[in-house]
Design a protein that fits this description.
Elements lengths: L6 E6 L2 H9 L8 E4 L7 E4 L1 H4 L9 H7 L4 E3 L3 H16 L5 E5 L2 E5 L10 H16 L3 E6 L2 H8 L7 E3 L5 H6 L11 H9 L5 H5 L3 H8 L3 H7 L16 E12 L2 H21 L2 E12 L4 E7 L7 H12 L9 E13 L6 H7 L3
Parallel strand pairs: 2-4, 7-8
Antiparallel strand pairs: 1-6, 1-7, 2-3, 5-6, 9-12, 10-11, 10-12
Bound molecules: magnesium ion.
Magnesium ion (MG) binds next to strand 1.
Length: 360
C-alpha cells in the first residue's frame, strides 16, 4: 500500500487588497477594491470589508461601485505582489521542495516527507502561516489533507486566517453536502451541465457510475468520479521552467510554392512570438522543422548570442532557415518553428497570472 500523502494548500487572504491595506493604513477597515474604477475596469481583488457588500473579484468595477458606494479603488501594484509571493515561496521552501504554485498567492505543498521533522502536516501549516505573518505582515489560510482536491477545499473552510484538516477517510463525507459548483476543477459551464443532470452536490455526483460520467464529460469523468469519493491521485507538480516554445502545423493542402511557404512560416513565427511574450520569455535559438509528404523530416537551427528581440526578427530567422531548402525537392505537409535556449525577460515565478491580469 502506498503511504498516505500529506498535502497542504496555502492561500493568502484577499491577497492584493490585504497588501494595499498593509501599505496604506488609511485603507485598513475600509472597503477596498484593487483594480481600476473606469468604465471597462474589473475588480482584481476585494477586501473583506468590500466583500460584505457583495463585491467580488472579476466583477465589473461599475457593478462593484453600485453595490458599495463607499468602495475605494486602488490601482494594482504587481511588482509588490510578486515580491511578497517570492517571500512566501521562500517560507514554503524551508519545509519542502515539492511546491506547486497555482497563482501568486496560492500553492500546493507536499509535506509527506518534509525537510524539517515535525509531528504533523497540521503543525507545518501552522508554522508556515505564522512565518508568513511574521515576515510579510499578511495572513494566510491553510487546508491540510491527503490530496490536492481536499486540501484546496479545506483552505476555504476557515478563511480568513484559519486552517482546517480533512483527515484520511473523511473526504467522501466532507464533499457529500457541498455543491459541485464549489469544487476546484468544475467550472461554471460543467456545473450547469451537472445541474441539468440532477447533480447538485457531492452526494449526487457519488451516485453516478463512471460509465455515465464518461458519456457526459469524457476524459474528465475519472477525476469527477474520484473527487465524489474524496479521491484525487494527482501529484504536487513543482513548477519547472519550460525549455522551449514552439508551434507546428500540418496543412490540409500540401505546400509547394515559395508564396505558400513564406506566409505559412510568418503565421507560425507570429504565433510563437505571441506565446513567448505572454510568458515574458524569449530565446537565443530558432529551429525550423519541415516534413515532406513522404514523411521525411528535417530540422534547421540558428543560434544568436542574444535572445530574439521581436516578432519580425523571429520571422526573418525562420525565413532565413527555409531559404537553402528551396526549391523544394517535394511538397511539404508540416512546418514548425521553435524558440529555445530561453531566458526570462522577468524574474517572476507566476508571470502567466500577471499577463492574465494585465488588462486591469
Ligand atoms: Mg487568496
Amino acid at each position: 500500500m502506498k503511504p498516505v500523502r500529506r498535502i497542504i494548500h496555502i492561500d493568502m487572504d484577499a491577497f492584493y487588497a490585504s497588501v494595499e491595506q498593509r501599505d496604506a493604513p488609511e485603507l485598513r477597515g475600509r472597503p477596498v477594491a484593487v483594480g481600476r474604477s473606469q468604465e471597462r475596469g474589473v475588480v482584481a481583488a476585494a477586501s473583506y470589508e468590500a466583500r460584505k457588500f457583495g463585491v467580488r473579484s472579476a466583477m465589473p468595477s461599475v457593478v462593484a461601485q453600485r453595490k458599495c458606494p463607499e468602495l475605494i479603488f486602488v490601482p494594482p501594484r504587481f511588482e509588490v505582489y510578486r515580491a511578497v509571493s517570492a517571500q512566501i515561496h521562500a517560507v514554503f521552501a524551508r519545509y519542502t521542495p515539492l511546491i506547486q504554485p497555482l497563482s501568486l498567492d496560492e500553492a500546493y505543498l507536499d509535506v509527506t516527507d518534509p525537510l524539517l521533522p515535525r509531528p504533523s502536516a497540521t503543525a507545518i501549516a501552522q508554522e508556515i502561516r505564522a512565518a508568513i505573518h511574521a515576515e510579510t505582515g499578511l495572513t494566510a489560510s491553510a487546508g491540510v489533507s491527503y490530496n490536492k482536491f481536499l486540501a484546496k477545499l479545506a483552505s476555504d473552510y476557515r478563511k480568513p486566517n484559519g486552517q482546517f484538516v480533512i483527515p484520511p477517510g473523511a473526504g467522501e463525507a466532507f464533499v457529500a453536502d457541498l455543491p459541485v459548483s464549489s469544487f476546484h476543477g468544475i467550472g461554471p459551464a460543467t456545473a450547469a451541465r451537472m445541474n441539468a443532470l440532477g447533480i447538485y452536490t457531492g452526494a449526487d455526483l457519488r451516485t453516478q457510475t463512471l460509465d455515465i460520467l464518461v458519456r457526459h464529460f469524457g476524459k474528465a469523468a475519472t477525476f469527477y468520479y474520484g473527487i465524489a469519493r474524496g479521491e484525487d491521485p494527482r501529484p504536487v507538480e513543482p513548477h519547472r521552467p519550460r525549455k522551449s516554445i514552439g508551434k507546428e502545423t500540418t496543412y490540409e493542402r500540401d505546400l509547394r510554392r515559395d508564396d505558400e511557404l513564406y506566409p505559412a512560416l510568418t503565421t507560425l513565427a507570429q504565433s510563437v512570438w505571441h506565446a513567448c511574450s505572454k510568458r515574458h520569455t524569449s530565446g537565443r535559438t530558432v529551429t525550423l522543422k519541415l516534413r515532406y509528404v513522404n514523411f521525411q523530416q528535417l530540422t534547421r537551427s540558428h543560434s544568436f548570442t542574444d535572445p530574439i528581440p521581436s516578432a519580425t526578427a523571429l520571422e526573418e530567422t525562420a525565413h532565413f532557415l527555409l531559404r537553402p531548402l528551396l526549391p523544394l525537392s517535394r511538397p511539404v505537409r508540416l512546418l514548425g518553428t521553435t524558440v529555445s535556449s530561453l531566458t526570462s525577460t522577468e524574474e517572476s515565478p507566476a508571470t502567466e497570472q500577471l499577463s492574465l491580469l494585465s488588462h486591469l
